[in-house]
Protein backbone atom coordinates (compact mmCIF):
# COMPACT_ATOMS: atom_id res chain seq x y z
CA UNK A 1 0.00 0.00 0.00
CA UNK A 2 1.29 3.44 -0.87
CA UNK A 3 1.50 5.91 1.97
CA UNK A 4 -0.02 9.32 1.46
CA UNK A 5 2.41 12.20 1.10
CA UNK A 6 2.12 15.65 2.66
CA UNK A 7 4.27 18.51 1.38
CA UNK A 8 4.99 21.66 3.34
CA UNK A 9 5.51 24.82 1.29
CA UNK A 10 6.03 28.42 2.29
CA UNK A 11 8.54 31.23 2.45
CA UNK A 12 11.87 30.76 4.21
CA UNK A 13 11.68 31.15 7.99
CA UNK A 14 7.96 30.59 8.39
CA UNK A 15 8.76 27.40 10.34
CA UNK A 16 8.58 24.58 7.78
CA UNK A 17 11.53 22.61 9.08
CA UNK A 18 10.41 23.13 12.68
CA UNK A 19 7.12 21.41 11.83
CA UNK A 20 8.86 18.78 9.70
CA UNK A 21 11.16 17.87 12.57
CA UNK A 22 8.29 17.81 15.02
CA UNK A 23 6.37 15.45 12.74
CA UNK A 24 9.14 13.01 11.98
CA UNK A 25 10.85 13.48 15.34
CA UNK A 26 12.75 10.48 16.59
CA UNK A 27 12.49 8.54 13.40
CA UNK A 28 15.18 10.70 11.85
CA UNK A 29 17.77 10.18 14.55
CA UNK A 30 17.50 6.40 14.13
CA UNK A 31 17.97 6.72 10.42
CA UNK A 32 20.99 8.98 10.67
CA UNK A 33 23.07 6.18 12.19
CA UNK A 34 23.46 4.63 8.77
CA UNK A 35 26.87 5.52 7.35
CA UNK A 36 26.74 8.03 4.55
CA UNK A 37 23.32 9.31 5.49
CA UNK A 38 23.46 12.93 6.47
CA UNK A 39 21.20 15.07 8.52
CA UNK A 40 19.70 17.03 5.66
CA UNK A 41 16.59 15.00 5.09
CA UNK A 42 13.68 16.48 3.22
CA UNK A 43 11.51 13.38 3.11
CA UNK A 44 10.58 11.15 6.02
CA UNK A 45 7.87 9.11 7.62
CA UNK A 46 5.53 10.62 10.17
CA UNK A 47 2.57 9.44 12.17
CA UNK A 48 -0.56 11.03 13.51
CA UNK A 49 -2.95 8.96 15.63
CA UNK A 50 -3.01 5.65 13.79
CA UNK A 51 -2.14 6.97 10.35
CA UNK A 52 1.37 6.93 9.02
CA UNK A 53 2.29 9.05 6.05
CA UNK A 54 5.31 10.74 4.49
CA UNK A 55 6.25 14.39 4.71
CA UNK A 56 8.29 16.54 2.33
CA UNK A 57 9.95 19.73 3.54
CA UNK A 58 10.13 21.51 0.21
CA UNK A 59 12.17 24.28 1.83
CA UNK A 60 15.10 21.89 1.95
CA UNK A 61 15.13 21.47 -1.83
CA UNK A 62 17.19 24.28 -3.22
CA UNK A 63 17.89 24.95 -6.83
CA UNK A 64 21.18 26.78 -6.63
CA UNK A 65 21.70 30.33 -7.86
CA UNK A 66 18.05 31.01 -8.42
CA UNK A 67 16.31 34.06 -6.96
CA UNK A 68 13.98 33.43 -4.05
CA UNK A 69 10.76 33.65 -6.02
CA UNK A 70 12.01 31.14 -8.57
CA UNK A 71 13.08 28.79 -5.78
CA UNK A 72 9.67 29.04 -4.22
CA UNK A 73 7.97 28.39 -7.53
CA UNK A 74 10.02 25.18 -7.93
CA UNK A 75 9.19 24.12 -4.41
CA UNK A 76 5.48 24.66 -5.00
CA UNK A 77 5.69 22.66 -8.24
CA UNK A 78 7.45 19.81 -6.46
CA UNK A 79 4.74 19.86 -3.80
CA UNK A 80 2.03 19.69 -6.43
CA UNK A 81 3.75 16.89 -8.28
CA UNK A 82 4.84 14.72 -5.38
CA UNK A 83 2.21 15.02 -2.68
CA UNK A 84 -1.42 14.20 -1.97
CA UNK A 85 -2.04 17.12 0.39
CA UNK A 86 -0.19 20.44 0.57
CA UNK A 87 0.28 22.43 3.77
CA UNK A 88 0.85 26.06 2.82
CA UNK A 89 2.57 27.69 5.76
CA UNK A 90 2.61 31.38 6.59
CA UNK A 91 4.08 33.49 9.35
CA UNK A 92 1.25 34.75 11.54
CA UNK A 93 3.46 37.49 12.96
CA UNK A 94 3.93 39.00 9.50
CA UNK A 95 0.62 38.54 7.72
CA UNK A 96 0.29 37.76 4.03
CA UNK A 97 3.29 39.01 2.06
CA UNK A 98 3.78 39.50 -1.67
CA UNK A 99 5.89 36.32 -1.76
CA UNK A 100 3.06 34.37 -0.11
CA UNK A 101 0.74 35.60 -2.84
CA UNK A 102 3.17 34.36 -5.48
CA UNK A 103 3.15 30.89 -3.94
CA UNK A 104 -0.64 31.00 -3.72
CA UNK A 105 -0.82 31.76 -7.46
CA UNK A 106 0.97 28.54 -8.28
CA UNK A 107 -1.04 26.52 -5.80
CA UNK A 108 -4.31 27.77 -7.30
CA UNK A 109 -3.43 25.87 -10.46
CA UNK A 110 -3.24 22.54 -8.67
CA UNK A 111 -6.23 20.41 -7.85
CA UNK A 112 -4.57 18.96 -4.75
CA UNK A 113 -6.13 19.77 -1.38
CA UNK A 114 -4.38 22.72 0.26
CA UNK A 115 -4.47 23.47 3.98
CA UNK A 116 -3.35 26.84 5.31
CA UNK A 117 -1.20 26.74 8.46
CA UNK A 118 -0.52 30.09 10.08
CA UNK A 119 2.53 29.53 12.26
CA UNK A 120 4.07 31.45 15.15
CA UNK A 121 0.66 32.07 16.74
CA UNK A 122 2.33 31.56 20.09
CA UNK A 123 -0.47 32.93 22.27
CA UNK A 124 -4.28 32.88 22.00
CA UNK A 125 -4.48 36.67 21.63
CA UNK A 126 -2.73 36.46 18.27
CA UNK A 127 -5.45 34.20 16.94
CA UNK A 128 -7.71 37.18 16.47
CA UNK A 129 -5.89 37.96 13.24
CA UNK A 130 -6.55 34.52 11.75
CA UNK A 131 -9.49 35.73 9.68
CA UNK A 132 -7.33 37.72 7.29
CA UNK A 133 -5.93 34.46 5.93
CA UNK A 134 -9.32 33.47 4.51
CA UNK A 135 -8.49 36.02 1.83
CA UNK A 136 -6.10 33.52 0.25
CA UNK A 137 -9.09 31.51 -0.86
CA UNK A 138 -8.00 28.11 0.42
CA UNK A 139 -10.66 27.78 3.09
CA UNK A 140 -10.18 27.68 6.85
CA UNK A 141 -6.72 28.76 8.05
CA UNK A 142 -5.27 26.86 11.02
CA UNK A 143 -3.40 28.86 13.65
CA UNK A 144 -0.44 26.91 14.98
CA UNK A 145 2.74 27.34 16.93
CA UNK A 146 5.43 24.92 15.90
CA UNK A 147 7.64 26.07 18.70
CA UNK A 148 5.02 25.43 21.40
CA UNK A 149 3.25 22.55 19.69
CA UNK A 150 -0.08 24.40 19.60
CA UNK A 151 -2.88 23.77 17.12
CA UNK A 152 -1.06 20.95 15.39
CA UNK A 153 -3.71 18.36 16.23
CA UNK A 154 -6.51 20.23 14.47
CA UNK A 155 -4.26 20.90 11.50
CA UNK A 156 -3.29 17.24 11.16
CA UNK A 157 -6.85 15.99 11.58
CA UNK A 158 -7.79 18.11 8.59
CA UNK A 159 -4.74 17.05 6.55
CA UNK A 160 -5.40 13.38 7.15
CA UNK A 161 -9.05 13.85 6.25
CA UNK A 162 -7.91 14.75 2.72
CA UNK A 163 -5.87 11.59 2.16
CA UNK A 164 -7.02 9.72 -0.92
CA UNK A 165 -8.75 6.43 -0.37
CA UNK A 166 -6.23 3.61 -0.54
CA UNK A 167 -6.78 0.75 -2.87
CA UNK A 168 -5.77 -2.15 -0.70
CA UNK A 169 -4.58 -5.50 -2.04
CA UNK A 170 -4.06 -4.29 -5.59
CA UNK A 171 -0.67 -5.97 -5.53
CA UNK A 172 -0.16 -9.28 -7.17
CA UNK A 173 1.86 -11.46 -4.82
CA UNK A 174 3.79 -13.33 -7.50
CA UNK A 175 5.01 -10.15 -9.12
CA UNK A 176 8.36 -8.75 -8.08
CA UNK A 177 8.40 -4.96 -7.70
CA UNK A 178 11.79 -3.39 -8.14
CA UNK A 179 13.27 0.06 -8.52
CA UNK A 180 16.46 1.39 -10.02
CA UNK A 181 18.08 4.10 -7.96
CA UNK A 182 21.27 6.12 -8.18
CA UNK A 183 22.52 9.61 -8.75
CA UNK A 184 21.84 11.39 -12.04
CA UNK A 185 23.67 9.91 -15.05
CA UNK A 186 24.59 6.52 -13.56
CA UNK A 187 22.42 5.00 -16.27
CA UNK A 188 19.06 4.32 -14.65
CA UNK A 189 16.92 5.01 -17.68
CA UNK A 190 19.41 3.29 -19.99
CA UNK A 191 19.25 0.17 -17.84
CA UNK A 192 15.47 0.12 -17.74
CA UNK A 193 15.30 0.63 -21.50
CA UNK A 194 17.85 -2.11 -22.05
CA UNK A 195 15.81 -4.51 -19.93
CA UNK A 196 12.65 -3.64 -21.79
CA UNK A 197 14.10 -3.76 -25.31
CA UNK A 198 15.85 -7.01 -24.69
CA UNK A 199 12.51 -8.58 -24.03
CA UNK A 200 10.41 -8.91 -27.14
CA UNK A 201 7.24 -8.94 -25.10
CA UNK A 202 5.05 -5.88 -25.43
CA UNK A 203 5.35 -3.76 -22.33
CA UNK A 204 2.53 -1.81 -20.88
CA UNK A 205 2.44 1.14 -18.58
CA UNK A 206 0.33 0.75 -15.51
CA UNK A 207 -1.21 3.84 -14.07
CA UNK A 208 0.20 4.25 -10.60
CA UNK A 209 -1.67 5.45 -7.58
CA UNK A 210 -0.74 9.02 -8.37
CA UNK A 211 -1.37 10.42 -11.78
CA UNK A 212 2.30 11.08 -12.38
CA UNK A 213 3.90 7.80 -11.38
CA UNK A 214 4.06 5.35 -14.22
CA UNK A 215 5.19 1.82 -13.44
CA UNK A 216 6.19 -0.60 -16.16
CA UNK A 217 5.53 -4.30 -16.43
CA UNK A 218 8.18 -6.73 -17.59
CA UNK A 219 7.92 -10.46 -18.13
CA UNK A 220 11.23 -12.29 -18.20
CA UNK A 221 12.61 -15.69 -17.21
CA UNK A 222 9.08 -16.87 -16.46
CA UNK A 223 8.60 -14.15 -13.93
CA UNK A 224 6.43 -11.01 -13.78
CA UNK A 225 8.20 -7.87 -12.70
CA UNK A 226 7.05 -4.31 -12.17
CA UNK A 227 9.67 -1.60 -12.54
CA UNK A 228 8.77 1.27 -10.27
CA UNK A 229 9.07 4.72 -11.74
CA UNK A 230 12.00 6.67 -10.35
CA UNK A 231 13.52 10.12 -10.77
CA UNK A 232 15.21 10.74 -14.04
CA UNK A 233 13.64 7.78 -15.77
CA UNK A 234 11.40 10.01 -17.78
CA UNK A 235 13.29 13.14 -18.59
CA UNK A 236 11.01 16.11 -18.56
CA UNK A 237 13.62 18.78 -18.40
CA UNK A 238 12.41 20.48 -15.28
CA UNK A 239 15.08 22.44 -13.47
CA UNK A 240 14.52 20.90 -10.08
CA UNK A 241 14.87 17.36 -11.42
CA UNK A 242 18.60 17.84 -11.54
CA UNK A 243 18.87 18.64 -7.84
CA UNK A 244 20.26 16.07 -5.49
CA UNK A 245 17.56 16.45 -2.86
CA UNK A 246 14.83 15.96 -5.42
CA UNK A 247 16.40 12.81 -6.82
CA UNK A 248 16.81 11.42 -3.31
CA UNK A 249 13.18 12.23 -2.56
CA UNK A 250 12.08 10.35 -5.68
CA UNK A 251 14.38 7.45 -4.84
CA UNK A 252 12.90 7.20 -1.34
CA UNK A 253 9.39 7.14 -2.76
CA UNK A 254 10.36 4.35 -5.14
CA UNK A 255 12.23 2.33 -2.50
CA UNK A 256 9.19 2.33 -0.29
CA UNK A 257 7.12 0.48 -2.88
CA UNK A 258 9.84 -1.99 -3.91
CA UNK A 259 10.63 -5.55 -2.97
CA UNK A 260 14.09 -5.26 -4.47
CA UNK A 261 16.18 -2.14 -4.94
CA UNK A 262 18.92 -1.94 -7.56
CA UNK A 263 21.52 0.59 -6.46
CA UNK A 264 23.45 1.69 -9.51
CA UNK A 265 27.12 2.61 -9.46
CA UNK A 266 28.94 4.15 -12.39
CA UNK A 267 32.09 2.14 -13.21
CA UNK A 268 33.42 5.03 -15.24
CA UNK A 269 33.36 7.69 -12.54
CA UNK A 270 33.57 5.46 -9.48
CA UNK A 271 31.81 5.95 -6.17
CA UNK A 272 30.72 9.39 -5.07
CA UNK A 273 29.29 10.70 -1.82
CA UNK A 274 25.77 10.78 -3.24
CA UNK A 275 25.96 7.05 -4.11
CA UNK A 276 26.53 6.29 -0.46
CA UNK A 277 23.65 8.45 0.61
CA UNK A 278 21.19 6.82 -1.77
CA UNK A 279 22.37 3.30 -0.92
CA UNK A 280 22.21 4.14 2.78
CA UNK A 281 18.54 5.04 2.50
CA UNK A 282 17.82 1.81 0.66
CA UNK A 283 19.64 -0.22 3.28
CA UNK A 284 17.76 1.39 6.10
CA UNK A 285 14.42 0.58 4.45
CA UNK A 286 14.98 -3.15 4.93
CA UNK A 287 14.41 -4.01 1.27
CA UNK A 288 16.30 -6.61 -0.73
CA UNK A 289 19.23 -5.01 -2.50
CA UNK A 290 21.57 -5.52 -5.41
CA UNK A 291 24.59 -3.39 -6.19
CA UNK A 292 24.72 -2.92 -9.94
CA UNK A 293 27.95 -1.67 -11.46
CA UNK A 294 26.93 -0.10 -14.76
CA UNK A 295 29.09 1.16 -17.65
CA UNK A 296 31.36 -1.86 -17.23
CA UNK A 297 32.17 -1.44 -20.94
CA UNK A 298 34.21 1.67 -20.13
CA UNK A 299 36.69 -0.19 -17.93
CA UNK A 300 39.91 -1.64 -19.33
CA UNK A 301 39.56 -5.12 -17.99
CA UNK A 302 41.76 -8.06 -17.18
CA UNK A 303 40.93 -11.13 -15.12
CA UNK A 304 41.40 -9.23 -11.87
CA UNK A 305 39.36 -6.10 -12.60
CA UNK A 306 36.05 -7.35 -11.35
CA UNK A 307 37.44 -8.64 -8.09
CA UNK A 308 39.36 -5.43 -7.53
CA UNK A 309 36.39 -3.23 -8.26
CA UNK A 310 34.24 -5.32 -5.98
CA UNK A 311 36.78 -4.94 -3.17
CA UNK A 312 36.73 -1.18 -3.59
CA UNK A 313 32.94 -1.03 -3.53
CA UNK A 314 32.68 -3.40 -0.56
CA UNK A 315 35.02 -1.25 1.51
CA UNK A 316 32.79 1.77 0.88
CA UNK A 317 29.52 -0.04 1.52
CA UNK A 318 30.37 -2.35 4.40
CA UNK A 319 26.85 -2.39 5.75
CA UNK A 320 25.64 -3.79 2.41
CA UNK A 321 27.63 -7.01 2.73
CA UNK A 322 24.46 -9.01 1.96
CA UNK A 323 23.92 -7.32 -1.42
CA UNK A 324 25.29 -9.24 -4.40
CA UNK A 325 27.14 -7.28 -7.06
CA UNK A 326 26.25 -7.44 -10.71
CA UNK A 327 28.54 -5.93 -13.37
CA UNK A 328 26.97 -4.96 -16.66
CA UNK A 329 26.65 -2.44 -19.43
CA UNK A 330 23.28 -0.93 -20.16
CA UNK A 331 24.76 0.43 -23.38
CA UNK A 332 26.20 -2.75 -24.93
CA UNK A 333 23.80 -4.97 -22.96
CA UNK A 334 26.69 -7.18 -21.99
CA UNK A 335 25.96 -9.33 -18.92
CA UNK A 336 22.52 -7.79 -18.64
CA UNK A 337 21.00 -11.28 -18.60
CA UNK A 338 22.57 -11.81 -15.15
CA UNK A 339 20.34 -9.17 -13.60
CA UNK A 340 16.86 -10.68 -13.51
CA UNK A 341 18.02 -13.98 -11.94
CA UNK A 342 19.75 -11.94 -9.22
CA UNK A 343 16.57 -9.94 -8.63
CA UNK A 344 14.55 -13.13 -8.39
CA UNK A 345 16.92 -14.72 -5.86
CA UNK A 346 17.05 -11.58 -3.72
CA UNK A 347 13.28 -11.33 -3.73
CA UNK A 348 12.81 -14.99 -2.78
CA UNK A 349 15.27 -14.64 0.09
CA UNK A 350 13.60 -11.45 1.25
CA UNK A 351 10.32 -13.37 1.63
CA UNK A 352 11.85 -16.60 2.90
CA UNK A 353 10.55 -18.42 5.98
CA UNK A 354 12.67 -21.02 7.71
CA UNK A 355 11.27 -23.85 9.83
CA UNK A 356 11.58 -23.24 13.59
CA UNK A 357 13.15 -26.61 14.35
CA UNK A 358 15.87 -26.17 11.73
CA UNK A 359 16.50 -22.62 12.93
CA UNK A 360 17.00 -23.88 16.48
CA UNK A 361 19.35 -26.61 15.30
CA UNK A 362 21.43 -23.95 13.57
CA UNK A 363 21.47 -21.76 16.71
CA UNK A 364 22.41 -24.69 18.93
CA UNK A 365 25.25 -25.69 16.63
CA UNK A 366 26.43 -22.08 16.66
CA UNK A 367 26.36 -21.98 20.46
CA UNK A 368 28.45 -25.12 20.61
CA UNK A 369 31.01 -23.47 18.33
CA UNK A 370 31.46 -20.17 20.07
CA UNK A 371 31.46 -19.45 23.81
CA UNK A 372 28.47 -17.34 24.80
CA UNK A 373 29.34 -13.88 26.14
CA UNK A 374 29.66 -13.26 29.85
CA UNK A 375 29.31 -9.75 31.21
CA UNK A 376 30.23 -9.06 34.86
CA UNK A 377 30.02 -12.73 35.69
CA UNK A 378 26.58 -13.10 34.10
CA UNK A 379 26.36 -15.52 31.26
CA UNK A 380 24.00 -15.21 28.31
CA UNK A 381 21.58 -18.11 28.07
CA UNK A 382 19.88 -18.69 24.73
CA UNK A 383 16.56 -20.47 25.09
CA UNK A 384 15.11 -20.66 21.61
CA UNK A 385 14.63 -18.73 18.40
CA UNK A 386 11.77 -18.17 16.03
CA UNK A 387 11.22 -16.26 12.81
CA UNK A 388 8.62 -13.56 13.41
CA UNK A 389 8.49 -11.79 10.04
CA UNK A 390 9.50 -11.74 6.40
CA UNK A 391 10.49 -8.84 4.12
CA UNK A 392 13.01 -8.72 5.63
CA UNK A 393 13.34 -12.02 7.53
CA UNK A 394 13.31 -11.18 11.22
CA UNK A 395 14.12 -13.45 14.12
CA UNK A 396 13.46 -13.25 17.81
CA UNK A 397 15.93 -15.00 20.05
CA UNK A 398 14.67 -15.59 23.58
CA UNK A 399 17.42 -15.18 26.17
CA UNK A 400 17.76 -14.85 29.93
CA UNK A 401 18.93 -11.23 29.70
CA UNK A 402 18.95 -9.22 26.42
CA UNK A 403 21.62 -6.84 27.74
CA UNK A 404 24.08 -9.74 27.58
CA UNK A 405 23.52 -10.05 23.83
CA UNK A 406 26.65 -8.39 22.58
CA UNK A 407 26.72 -6.70 19.18
CA UNK A 408 29.53 -9.02 18.06
CA UNK A 409 27.70 -12.12 19.26
CA UNK A 410 24.55 -11.04 17.48
CA UNK A 411 26.63 -10.53 14.37
CA UNK A 412 28.05 -14.03 14.79
CA UNK A 413 24.56 -15.55 15.05
CA UNK A 414 23.46 -13.54 12.06
CA UNK A 415 26.32 -14.94 9.99
CA UNK A 416 25.53 -18.52 11.04
CA UNK A 417 21.88 -18.03 10.06
CA UNK A 418 22.96 -16.58 6.73
CA UNK A 419 25.33 -19.46 6.06
CA UNK A 420 22.72 -22.04 6.92
CA UNK A 421 19.79 -20.60 4.96
CA UNK A 422 21.36 -18.48 2.23
CA UNK A 423 19.91 -15.01 2.58
CA UNK A 424 21.80 -13.44 -0.32
CA UNK A 425 20.39 -10.04 -1.24
CA UNK A 426 18.33 -9.42 1.87
CA UNK A 427 19.07 -7.84 5.22
CA UNK A 428 17.96 -9.91 8.22
CA UNK A 429 17.04 -8.69 11.69
CA UNK A 430 17.69 -10.33 15.01
CA UNK A 431 15.96 -9.19 18.19
CA UNK A 432 16.86 -10.50 21.63
CA UNK A 433 13.90 -10.81 24.01
CA UNK A 434 13.79 -11.71 27.66
CA UNK A 435 12.26 -15.00 28.66
CA UNK A 436 12.87 -16.37 32.14
P1 LIG B 1 11.76 27.33 7.52
O1 LIG B 1 12.82 28.16 6.85
O2 LIG B 1 10.40 27.65 6.99
O3 LIG B 1 12.05 25.86 7.51
O4 LIG B 1 11.71 27.84 9.05
P2 LIG B 1 12.37 27.19 10.36
O5 LIG B 1 11.63 25.99 10.80
O6 LIG B 1 13.83 27.06 10.14
O7 LIG B 1 12.06 28.33 11.40
C1 LIG B 1 12.54 29.67 11.24
C2 LIG B 1 12.62 30.35 12.59
O8 LIG B 1 11.32 30.49 13.16
C3 LIG B 1 13.42 29.56 13.60
O9 LIG B 1 14.21 30.47 14.33
C4 LIG B 1 12.37 28.93 14.49
O10 LIG B 1 12.84 28.72 15.79
C5 LIG B 1 11.27 29.94 14.46
N1 LIG B 1 9.95 29.36 14.71
C6 LIG B 1 9.44 28.21 14.19
N2 LIG B 1 8.18 27.99 14.67
C7 LIG B 1 7.91 29.00 15.50
C8 LIG B 1 6.76 29.34 16.31
O11 LIG B 1 5.77 28.62 16.39
N3 LIG B 1 6.83 30.49 17.03
C9 LIG B 1 7.92 31.30 17.01
N4 LIG B 1 7.90 32.40 17.75
N5 LIG B 1 9.02 31.01 16.27
C10 LIG B 1 9.02 29.88 15.53
P1 LIG C 1 20.17 8.33 -15.52
O1 LIG C 1 20.24 9.80 -15.32
O2 LIG C 1 20.66 7.61 -14.30
O3 LIG C 1 18.84 7.83 -15.97
O4 LIG C 1 21.26 8.00 -16.66
P2 LIG C 1 21.03 7.76 -18.23
O5 LIG C 1 20.44 6.44 -18.48
O6 LIG C 1 20.36 8.96 -18.81
O7 LIG C 1 22.55 7.69 -18.71
C1 LIG C 1 23.44 8.78 -18.55
C2 LIG C 1 24.53 8.73 -19.60
O8 LIG C 1 25.33 7.55 -19.43
C3 LIG C 1 23.98 8.65 -21.02
O9 LIG C 1 24.79 9.43 -21.84
C4 LIG C 1 24.10 7.18 -21.38
O10 LIG C 1 24.26 6.98 -22.76
C5 LIG C 1 25.34 6.77 -20.61
N1 LIG C 1 25.32 5.35 -20.28
C6 LIG C 1 24.33 4.68 -19.64
N2 LIG C 1 24.66 3.38 -19.48
C7 LIG C 1 25.90 3.22 -20.03
C8 LIG C 1 26.80 2.11 -20.17
O11 LIG C 1 26.52 0.97 -19.75
N3 LIG C 1 27.98 2.36 -20.77
C9 LIG C 1 28.34 3.58 -21.23
N4 LIG C 1 29.52 3.72 -21.80
N5 LIG C 1 27.52 4.65 -21.11
C10 LIG C 1 26.32 4.48 -20.52
Automatic annotation (TrEMBL):
Q: Keyword set for this entry?
A: GTP-binding, Nucleotide-binding, Repeat, Ribosome biogenesis
Q: Does Nucleotide-binding count among this protein's keywords?
A: yes
Specify one Pfam family. MMR_HSR1
Under SUPFAM superfamilies, the record lists:
P-loop containing nucleoside triphosphate hydrolases
Q: Which residues bind GTP 1?
A: 10-17, 57-61, 119-122
Q: Does the keyword Nuclease apply?
A: no
Q: Which residues form the EngA-type G domain?
A: 4-167, 176-351
Binding-site residues for GTP 2, renumbered to this chain = 182-189, 229-233, 294-297
Q: How does it assemble?
A: Associates with the 50S ribosomal subunit.
Similarity comment: Belongs to the TRAFAC class TrmE-Era-EngA-EngB-Septin-like GTPase superfamily. EngA (Der) GTPase family.
Relate the protein's function as given in its record: GTPase that plays an essential role in the late steps of ribosome biogenesis.
Protein name listed in UniProt:
GTPase Der
The gene behind this protein is engA
Amino acid sequence: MRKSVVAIVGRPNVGKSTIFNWLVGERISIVEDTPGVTRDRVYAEAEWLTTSFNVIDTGGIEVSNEPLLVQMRHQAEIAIEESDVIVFMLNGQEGITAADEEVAKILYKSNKPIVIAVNKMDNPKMRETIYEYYALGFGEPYPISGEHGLGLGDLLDTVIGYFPEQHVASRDDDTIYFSVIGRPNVGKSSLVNALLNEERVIVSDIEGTTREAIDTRLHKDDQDFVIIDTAGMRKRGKVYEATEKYSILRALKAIERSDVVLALIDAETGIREQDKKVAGYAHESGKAMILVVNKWDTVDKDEKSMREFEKKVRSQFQYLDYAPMVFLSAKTKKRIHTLTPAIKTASENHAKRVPTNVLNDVINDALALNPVPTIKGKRLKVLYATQVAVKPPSFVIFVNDPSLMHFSFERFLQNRIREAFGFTGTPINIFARKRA
